[in-house]
Amino acid sequence: MSSKSVVDMIEASSGVHFSGFHLNGVERRTAAAELTSTSTTESVSKQPFVIGVAGGAASGKTTVCDMIMEQLHDQRVVLVNQDSFYFHLSEDELSRVQEYNFDHPDAFNTEQLLSSMERLKCGQAVDIPKYDFRSYKNNVFPSKRVNPSDVIILEGILIFHDPRVRDLMNMKIFVDTDADVRLARRIRRDTVEKGRDIGTVLDQYSKFVKPAFDDFILPTKKYADIIIPRGGDNHVAIDLIVQHIRTKLGQHNLCKIYPNLYVIQSTFQIRGMHTLVRDTQTTKHDFVFYSDRLIRLVVEHGLGHLPFTEKQVITPTGSVYTGVDFCKRLCGVSIIRSGESMENALRACCKGIKIGKILIHREGDNGQQLIYEKLPKDISDRHVLLLDPILGTGNSAVQAISLLIKKGVPESNIIFLNLISAPQGVHVVCKSFPRIKIVTSEIEIGLNKDYRVIPGMGEFGDRYFGTDDDDQQMISLTTQLDVPPHKMREQPS
């Protein structure tokens, strides 16, 4: 059995059949182009993953969509149906409804569909009409409010027909089902759900449905990245698709530019904790509690990037278990003051770990002055976890990393742990030190004109330690370090 991952198989298998799963090359889309200027203030926001599901009428598209949504239950997923965008029939068209071709591209209000999808991709809620197939009107039922989501599934017989709609999609799936099966399903659906008699259904099929499939729907099959035979019955194909989607959701756009950037996969729990720590109304106690939970997740993820050796042990049952042994030569270094909030989580994970300190004073927007460092004497022989909850401009981080390298620490032995990171800081650090690893829980929108991270968490150290910019709270620390209090102001990396 090949050791390739499922995603590798999906992205490398062009024109190959695997368990009934035909791949025409899953389209790789990088939603954000590489920024050439490290001082840029444009945002690099996370775009939703848009999946198009096309195929003939009654091919099983809705079943495939339902199965994908069920498996992605821990993500925000919405379904947008092309049927919602049928034109409202006029009185003249209603009088000749038997002659109206609902399977022709002109039957759909594509401009309204494009407008709704663009707004969803920009993070705006939209009202989607609900079409009534008995009265052939789109104003009988109230519109459905659809909110922005992580995944948008766009389903319909002709969603691949217009190139503007195709360009919105990150993945295009064509559900390929035998014509006889589709006809049997259509007869059952239209007679039961839409109240039509079988004669009308067969007449419409021969006059409009089959010719439209041959002329408009089947030709769009060539645009599909993935072709699923048998629709919802093909569980293997759907499982592989969901795994691929999960991999893509776990990648922020910057991760596609910098392979040394790792963003832990978001869940509702992580998103909920971020909501609490970002809320200005959150109490200090809750801010510390949920910050500690997030920090622990980041630390655990960072430890997973350390080297390991294989180790065998004997279990209480007398059996042999083959596992791994943790990296022994390890230390932490916190950038004072916010970085100290991450020390407890590191100590909880690594018993007896040595932790060094670095204090950097910010002078102006770009000037950095190292005014204190206390590091283990043998740090050059250790892997280093550099701790700072907020990566902002990246200037302080560059200063700290430069010091570690000057002390003899190999660049590849440094793992930089953050709670949140601004794209500008990621660019600065990754371009300056391409061999270090950055581990963070969320990528921010960017920096404002005051070089503060947005949406951000505010002054993290003040909120965590409860100082609220009160210099008197820092007397003890400044006395120990022999540093003037005005130089102890909080600055993100």
UniProtKB/TrEMBL annotation:
<feature type="domain" description="Phosphoribulokinase/uridine kinase">
    <location>
        <begin position="50"/>
        <end position="236"/>
    </location>
</feature>
<comment type="pathway">
    <text>Pyrimidine metabolism; UMP biosynthesis via salvage pathway; UMP from uridine: step 1/1.</text>
</comment>
<comment type="pathway">
    <text>Pyrimidine metabolism; CTP biosynthesis via salvage pathway; CTP from cytidine: step 1/3.</text>
</comment>
<dbReference type="InterPro" id="IPR027417">
    <property type="entry name" value="P-loop_NTPase"/>
</dbReference>
<dbReference type="GO" id="GO:0005525">
    <property type="term" value="F:GTP binding"/>
</dbReference>
<dbReference type="GO" id="GO:0009507">
    <property type="term" value="C:chloroplast"/>
</dbReference>
<keyword id="KW-0342">GTP-binding</keyword>
<keyword id="KW-0808">Transferase</keyword>
<dbReference type="GO" id="GO:0005524">
    <property type="term" value="F:ATP binding"/>
</dbReference>
<dbReference type="Pfam" id="PF14681">
    <property type="entry name" value="UPRTase"/>
</dbReference>
<keyword id="KW-0547">Nucleotide-binding</keyword>
<keyword id="KW-0328">Glycosyltransferase</keyword>
<dbReference type="Pfam" id="PF00485">
    <property type="entry name" value="PRK"/>
</dbReference>
<keyword id="KW-0021">Allosteric enzyme</keyword>
<comment type="similarity">
    <text>In the C-terminal section; belongs to the UPRTase family.</text>
</comment>
<dbReference type="InterPro" id="IPR029057">
    <property type="entry name" value="PRTase-like"/>
</dbReference>
<dbReference type="GO" id="GO:2000904">
    <property type="term" value="P:regulation of starch metabolic process"/>
</dbReference>
<protein>
    <recommendedName>
        <fullName>Uridine kinase</fullName>
        <ecNumber>2.7.1.48</ecNumber>
    </recommendedName>
</protein>
<dbReference type="InterPro" id="IPR000836">
    <property type="entry name" value="PRTase_dom"/>
</dbReference>
<keyword id="KW-0067">ATP-binding</keyword>
<keyword id="KW-0511">Multifunctional enzyme</keyword>
<feature type="domain" description="Phosphoribosyltransferase">
    <location>
        <begin position="266"/>
        <end position="467"/>
    </location>
</feature>
<dbReference type="InterPro" id="IPR000764">
    <property type="entry name" value="Uridine_kinase-like"/>
</dbReference>
<dbReference type="GO" id="GO:0044211">
    <property type="term" value="P:CTP salvage"/>
</dbReference>
<dbReference type="GO" id="GO:0016757">
    <property type="term" value="F:glycosyltransferase activity"/>
</dbReference>
<dbReference type="InterPro" id="IPR006083">
    <property type="entry name" value="PRK/URK"/>
</dbReference>
<dbReference type="GO" id="GO:0004849">
    <property type="term" value="F:uridine kinase activity"/>
</dbReference>
<keyword id="KW-0418">Kinase</keyword>
<comment type="similarity">
    <text>Belongs to the uridine kinase family.</text>
</comment>
<dbReference type="GO" id="GO:0044206">
    <property type="term" value="P:UMP salvage"/>
</dbReference>
